[in-house]
Amino acid sequence: MQGNTQPIDRETLLLEANKLIREHDDFIAGIEATNVVQKGSVLVFQGEYYLDEQGLPTPKTTAVFNMFKYLAHVLSEKYHLQN
Questions:
Q1: Could you tell me the superkingdom of the organism this chain comes from (predicted)?
Q2: Is the pTM of this model over 0.85?
């Protein structure tokens, strides 16, 4: 898992992740990664998912999911969380 990736602390990783979000072509105001956890070799990003009053997904929910998936793909290849 960690053989080809660099260690990084949570705060620095979140700063980089949110910079990537803001620079992405599909950026929507308000999307922000507020936490990240390591699941095996994958970094899993968390934040507001913008569900409706009934707890169902909205169009913004899909955008958030796709953005966090993008972050996981790009950043998991480069980093792993420091213990």
A1: Bacteria
A2: yes
- Which residue is associated with the tokens 């922000």? 32
Find the length of the chain: 83
CB 82 within 8 A of CB 72: no
- pLDDT value for 1: 47
Asked if the 6-81 domain carries CATH number 3.30.70.270, the reply is: no
Q: How many CB atoms lie within 10 A of CB 7?
A: 11
Q: How far apart are CA 68 and CA 47, in angstroms?
A: 9
Beta bridge partners of 36: 45
pLDDT for res 27: 87
Return the DSSP state at 29.
T
Q: Domain locations in the chain?
A: 6-81
> For 29-44, what is the mean pLDDT?
96
